[in-house]
Amino acid sequence: MNIVENFDLFAPRLINKKELLSGGHRACSGCGEVLAVRLMCKALGENTVIASATGCMEIVTSMYPTTAWEVPWIHVAFENAAAVASGVEAGLKALRRKGKIADCDIKVVGMAGDGGTMDIGMQALSGAMERGHDMLFVCFDNEAYMNTGIQRSSGTPMGASTTTAPAGKVSMGQKTWKKNMAEIMVAHNVPYVATACPSYPLDFIRKVEKAKKVKGPSYIHCFSVCPTGWRCPSDQTISLGRLAVETGIFPLYEVENGKYKLSAEMPKKLRPIKEYYKSQGRYRHLGEDEIKMIQDRVNKEYKKLLNKVQCLEAWS
Amino acid sequence: MTKKSGPAGWQEITTGCVVLRSGSASEYHTGTWRSQRPVWNDQKCIKCGICYIFCPEGCVSQTEDGYFKANLDYCKGCGICAHECWPRAIAMVEEG
Q1: Domain with A51 in it: what CATH number?
Q2: What ipTM describes this predicted complex?
Q3: Which residue of A has its CA nearest to B18?
Q4: Quick check: is B77 in a domain?
Q5: Out of B7, B53, B73, closest to residue A201 by CB
Q6: Does a structural domain hold residue A2?
Q7: Helix (H) or strand (E) holding A136
Q8: pTM metric for this prediction
Q9: How distant is the Cα of A245 from the closest Cα of chain B, in angstroms?
Q10: Structural domain tally of chain B?
Q11: Could you tell me if B83 and A235 are in contact, meaning their C-beta atoms sit under 8 angstroms apart?
């Protein structure tokens, strides 16, 4: 990290001023996902085509007959956001070859929520990554199907109460561990994979800019807080995202050509996950034993990641 | 409440329901949802821009003298700016 980048961390006003997602979209107040989309658009700039799967971001930004987007945007079904994005990329390539459009660099972006990425859109995404299209796929992970009313997805973490995995006398809510989507993408051997969180806006923008420059498939897993579904006050959106990173529940890292690198934002010593859990209504029912069980798992996962960072340095 | 205008008849609907006016969602003013409004104290403001960067609506903008203000047509009153402002220059005030 050079001095200029370090300076960048303290100068939020240096980012692109142009808003490519207009006001008047219908996201809930305090939505972390729409903030992430706004920052992503700032980083991508105007020469972008976005293919968006069904989900919160499709509903809130495109209330017919209006749209909040100022870049070309297409809504597609849950399962084929990555397939459509790869088709758009191939189509642009063909038009450029035939001289129908100017020879300029246009980035194609697929975006989906955690359901559209981890559950339903998984095979289309896997295929697009394997074919090596020049595209970026961004997953906005708010850890359940928030748009339809907080149903569990494979991104829902252990112990969270959702409407289809409710906590009660016999159940502690979600009974399975969260799927590690970023690792699945690393296994596809794509040039760039990163995890990001809009609570660290400059880190997030830098990662999107980096992914934009990559010639080939890239994937960004973005952690976005949902005050409605997580049962927390709307003003805590940013601080909860920060806590998720500081407790190690959602570590920020990037993988460039198989080489792991921990982001500068990660603290040297992790905070206990209890601090993150106590302010959210979806974890209110958890007892000490359950939190301890989850804490053990978080520690193990983080240790595994640190091991990868250390041993894979040999790749460089 | 702003009135939502739709196509008058089926003849006006574009093929594939394509919307040709970009950014037209701004015709709808989400400010009517708000129960609290942010108020800036310019004496405490250090012009860091953290309220601008963290606003999910993108409704916070910088004035010519460098201070920040929210466009209350779109501000939903989530309180993120007041919570994140570390010189505590923003206060949330009840509407009405």
Answers
A1: 3.40.50.970
A2: 0.91
A3: A65
A4: yes
A5: B53
A6: no
A7: strand A135-141
A8: 0.91
A9: 17
A10: 1
A11: yes
